[in-house]
Amino acid sequence: MNEHKPKIFVTRNLPERGLELLFQNFGKENIKIYPGETPIPYEELLEEVKGIDALLCLLTDKIDTQIMEQAGPQLKIIANYAVGFDNIDIAEATKRKIVVTNTPGVLTETTADLAWALLMASARRLGEGERLVRASQWAGWNPTLLLGMDVHGKTLGIFGMGRIGQAVARRATGFDMRVIYYDVTEPKLPEDIKATPVDKETLLKESDFISIHCPLTRSTYHAFGIEEFKQMKRTACIINTSRGPVIDEEALAQALKDGLIFSAGLDVFEKEPEIHPDLLNCPNAILIPHLGSASVETRSRMAEIAAQNIIARLNGKTPPNPVNPEAL
Ligand code: DGY
User: What does the longest C-alpha to C-alpha distance in the chain come to?
Assistant: First the structure.
């Protein structure tokens, strides 16, 4: 009898541990890894998916009907190497009984740490300070040099109170902050998180810092545009570590330029890796290249989890992290 050996395509080189798990379970010869350092071109991905049983992809890969069609009916799982999965057409996958999985949990604390790094950096103008020093333009201590905003004792507004939002809120205790949040669901918060639910308007008006932690959906697309910035405090900072399109980048650049808000700390952008040129010209925006989960430990755990999802599914078991369990 000819035993079917599952074929797996991985769209980028990943931390070793995840790949090792796949090699051990399915044999190195059955796993193909795209060797490039930038996203695999769509046309190439269309070719590579033909006949595969599992796809391990990144948030930079658009997985649509055509990719699934081209792969063929034997495709059983799309394991996304991310917690967010807005790059995948979930409804289409479900229709085709393809399970989509993500990597939740392991990156919560790491991403919350980064949101705080951006919050502190944008409140205290660290980007401007660093640029000044590196340009050898620092003329010495000055009572009015680069004055920022205090963080302690202020109001932190969380937009999207899921796992990461909660982890960000928890960290605010050490800064003696009041925490308010807006969420379309009514999350049951653990006792150690003291935070008050508010409507969006209250969040905009009362927050000194707004940190965005919602998924990107049709209803969160451009949830922050010029009308929202007009309602915020002129001293407020906005932080985004979720998905770029939740903010209208052009409107944000305008708001920063006109002083509608004080500053922004952005890890994600509307058309990564492009950044709106007006934002690049805003000294009061801290811009970093989608580093939310980028710690050695977390990226390695994410690779392990993506591999474990594939191993379970290809062995006929329920994968640990399905986002469309109805496809099972
Ligand atoms: C995710 O997992 O969705 C993050 O954006 C990756 O850091």
Answer: 81
